[in-house]
Amino acid sequence: MANQFRLLGAYAHPDDEQGVSGLMHKYASEGVDVTLVCATRGEAGEIAPGVNATPENLGKVREDELRCAAEKIGVNNVYFLDYRDSGMMGTPENNDPRCLWQANLFDVTEKLARIIRRHKPHVMLTFDANGGYGHPDHIQIHRAALMAYFVAGDPRAYPEQIQREDLPAWTVSKLYWGAFPRSRFEKYAALAKQANIDLSVPLKEFLKRALPDEVVTTKIDVADYVDLKLSALFCHASQQNPNSIWSKIPQEIRREGLKVETVIRAESRVLAPQGIETDLFTGIA
Ligand SMILES: [Zn+2]
Fold first, then answer.
1. Using alpha carbons only, what angle is made at residue 143 by residues 117 and 238, rounded to the nearest 5 degrees?
2. What is the pLDDT of residues 79-117, one digit of tens each?
3. What ranges do the domains of the chain cover?
4. How many whole angstroms from 42 Cα to the centroid of ligand 1?
5. How many angstroms does the Cα of residue 142 sit away from the middle of ligand 1?
6. What is the dotted CATH code of the domain comprising 6-179+216-240+261-268?
7. Is residue 217 a contact partner of residue 264, using CB atoms and an 8 Å limit?
């Protein structure tokens, strides 16, 4: 089915797209052109036990894992910005001159603006200002995506892209940030209590990442795509650590939490609808 709309997600690591994999799949299925930008290859992350990867080849392994997930989701265009993963805040990886955290923000923005001008998305997705939970790469891609949202449509920004690369300025209509509402984790807690499962440790971690429900502007129903989301998630084998907080949630409870994806409409050049929005392209002609 052909569709005139285009969507672009700007993220930092392979697997960051998982919070929006259902909506990306939904829109791709409807014919929306979906572009996924990943700034690093996640090479500073931990390797899940039993996975055939080393710190030396982890970037390549994770690139392949992201391409696997992107194919399942139906992403049309995948880009890596070739920065190094900055690791968690306060670690020595933060000081590597090749890492995203050390990158010149104008350079990151220029790369994003080029991709925006090439693919002309109507809607962009990225992390919130805290990068979900404070990861430096998430914060940095948030900043670059916000800057690119504002300048990609301005012909004074990166004029060489327009003149030499034949990429005219393009104005994105809306920018969304990821958001995990507190109610989602409260639902996990309630389901766990019913099943007599102790989730207190992972929930404490989750609640640090949760935002008040009131800030969520947009809820996308992806209940039909829970299996697809999980199969895309499992492409990221090197990140499926059995000791992670996510892995501690029983499957049936986890599936409940995957049925709706929530985001915040942070910037919009079109009139906002009344109440909760259920479609990212609402208001765009
Ligand atoms: Zn990440």
1. 90
2. 999 999 999 999 999 999 999 999 999 999 999 999 999
3. 6-179+216-240+261-268
4. 8
5. 12
6. 3.40.50.10320
7. yes
